[in-house]
């Protein structure tokens, strides 16, 4: 089944991506992780998105899930649930060219009463051939917008 027409610009993301990542933030120790992202077509005008990560010893680290929508030409939305008590409403742009795809988002964040405070996030996904590179920054726990994550994945 073909994805919905609105998803044509991001159809190249469909499938499973896996690779290595590294993270930092001014308030924590640097770390590395294995990252996996899966985009699935469910037959509706959005892709389901799930991310999982593991430490070097195989222990689960972060996971998040949500939906990728392409509401209009050149625009993209990623609606995300975070297990640490946040939801992210990430809005931005999609630029699809012959051999590359770039998605950039800035998110408003809602925090539960018990969550560590995350005020805003920025995400970038760059697909070139079978390589997907992600970066993530956040304004959180009193820090201004600062880099937290970078991962470099291949299609599996
Ligand atoms: C691959 C994905 C991610 C990994 C591997 C990861 C890993 C980590 C690690 C190891 C820490 C320090 C220890 C801890 O508090 O658990 C941390 C802290 C934190 N992360 Fe992430 N993280 C990821 C994604 C995210 C995302 C998407 C957000 C926000 C939406 C986020 C927000 C935070 C916050 C608020 C802290 C606490 C900082 C502090 O207490 O000073 N992380 N993360």
TrEMBL record:
Domain of life: Bacteria
SUPFAM superfamilies named in the record: Lipocalins
Domain THAP4-like heme-binding: 7-155
Signal peptide location: none
The protein, known as: FABP family protein
């Amino acid at each position: 089944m073909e994805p919905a027409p609105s998803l044509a610009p991001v159809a190249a993301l469909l499938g499973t991506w896996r690779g290595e990542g590294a993270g930092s933030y001014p308030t924590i120790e640097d770390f590395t992780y294995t990252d996996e992202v899966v985009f699935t077509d469910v037959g509706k005008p959005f892709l389901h998105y799930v991310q999982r990560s593991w430490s070097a010893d195989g222990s689960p680290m972060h996971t998040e899930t949500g939906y990728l929508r392409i509401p209009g030409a050149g625009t993209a939305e990623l609606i995300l649930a975070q297990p640490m008590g946040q939801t992210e409403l990430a809005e931005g742009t999609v630029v699809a060219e012959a051999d590359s795809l770039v998605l950039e988002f800035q998110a408003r964040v809602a925090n539960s009463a018990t969550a560590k405070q995350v005020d805003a996030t920025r995400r970038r996904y760059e697909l070139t051939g079978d390589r997907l590179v992600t970066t993530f920054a956040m304004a959180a726990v009193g820090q201004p917008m600062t880099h937290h994550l970078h991962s470099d994945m291949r299609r599996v």
